[in-house]
Amino acid sequence: MQLSAHLPARLHRDRHDGRPRTRNAALQTLARAKRSGGPEDRALYSCPCGHAFKAEVSTSVGCPHCGTNQAW
């Protein structure tokens, strides 16, 4: 039994009508992202001690309540 399906070509494009995005559309998207403040560099972490906190995104963050490192 084969459980595969053919994917339509339009899924490989940026738009659903099959045309690639124009430079103007890409610049509008970039400008919208800049107006919204850009990406957040903070994340919500939860510690086994029960404390939840926001901190800068990093590979190792210490809990401000108990000091335990939060490894991802």
Describe the structure.
By secondary structure, this protein is an alpha+beta fold. The protein folds into 2 domains: 32 residues, no CATH class; 30 residues, no CATH class. The protein is 18% helix and 22% strand. It contains 1 helix and 4 strands; from the N terminus they run H-E-E-E-E. The strands form 2 sheets. It has a two-stranded antiparallel sheet with strand order 1-2. Strand 3 and strand 4 form a beta hairpin. The longest helix has 13 residues. The radius of gyration is 21 Å and the shape is elongated. The relative contact order is 0.11.
- What does the largest sheet look like? 2 strands, antiparallel
Report the helical percentage: 10-25%
Question: How many extended strands?
Answer: 4
For the terminal residues, how far apart are their CA atoms? 39 Å
Radius of gyration: 21 Å
Biggest sheet strand line-up: 1-2
Q: How many separate domains?
A: 2
Tell me the β content. Answer: 15-25%
In the predicted model, the low-confidence regions spanning at least 5 consecutive residues are: none
Shape: elongated
Total of helices: 1
State the secondary-structure class. alpha+beta
Helix and strand element order = HEEEE
| Average pLDDT level | 77
